Amino acid sequence: MLMELWKPVLKDFIDIISISIFSNPIISSKFDPQACGWAFGMNVFDLIAWRKENVTAQYHYWQEQNADQTLWKLGTLPPALLAFYGLTEPLDRRWHVLGLGYDMNIDDRLIDSAAVIHFNGNMKPWLKLAIGRYKPLWERYVNQSHPYYQDCVLN
């Protein structure tokens, strides 16, 4: 087993992922469509277990299986869910606070005590539709005079 990794996240999101990935017979024959997923944007890995379980090969295998995008069209989360299937463990929610890109009601104390905050969702802090109260959490770390930032269209 890999070290304590991910807290199962967002039931509706996982249901959508499960329907879109696990409804394919190639995948559903090997994986439980009710299995929990996690927020793949932040991870903690046990590299010894990674090598032992040959996770890289599994990830590449699933990417190759989807070269024609007939298994899924959602990017990097589906092959990660498949490659890490059965190898994840939950972290305490205070360790990784999710939802700053869609949930307007996250307790400030939870955010303040978090090791990692995650702007998952559509309302990213660099977009005009960002949730205003969370935007300063991101802005304080951004060098707005940096050429890369200046070249980006962030609205």
Automatic annotation (TrEMBL):
It is a single-pass type II membrane protein. It is an enzyme of class 2 (transferase). One of its GO terms (cellular component) is Golgi membrane. It is found in: Golgi apparatus membrane. Pfam families: Glyco_transf_8. Keywords: Cell wall biogenesis/degradation, Glycosyltransferase, Golgi apparatus, Transferase. This is Hexosyltransferase.
